[in-house]
Specification:
The protein is an all-beta fold. It contains no helices and 11 strands.
Length: 122
């Protein structure tokens, strides 16, 4: 079974940086993708970024383009989300997720991680 463990969340000042990590295991698929989602209290979970295992193509939500970078270290079986120029509105619980296929489509979800809290102070 696919397992995902997130880490790297914490408290950071606005304008600062943070790197989230997601250690994956059990991904025995030729075509899969790994993504980051976030959820604030009272709001639905939203996609932040996605990376494809097949060609390395990436996706970013408009709100984080130019500030966040997703990457995959295959040797460590770990996906990262480098978050720069953080804003207070980035405060959320961030979740890693694995999907069948290349586009991080929620209808093809394999597993959610447990979540890691990111708090950006003003």
């Amino acid at each position: 079974e696919v397992q995902l463990v997130e880490s790297g969340g914490g408290l950071v000042q606005a304008g600062g940086s943070l790197r989230l990590s997601c250690a994956a295991s059990g991904l025995r698929f030729a075509d899969y993708s790994l993504g980051w989602f976030r959820q604030a209290p009272g709001k639905e979970r939203e996609g932040v970024s996605c990376i494809s295992s097949s060609d390395g193509s990436t996706y970013y939500a408009d709100s984080v383009k130019g500030r966040f970078t997703i990457s995959n270290d295959k040797a460590k079986n770990t996906v990262y989300l480098q978050m720069n120029s953080l804003k207070q509105e980035d405060t959320d619980v961030y979740y890693c997720a694995a999907f069948i296929g290349s586009r991080c489509r929620t209808g093809y979800l394999l597993r959610w991680g447990q979540g890691t809290l990111v708090t950006v102070s003003s």
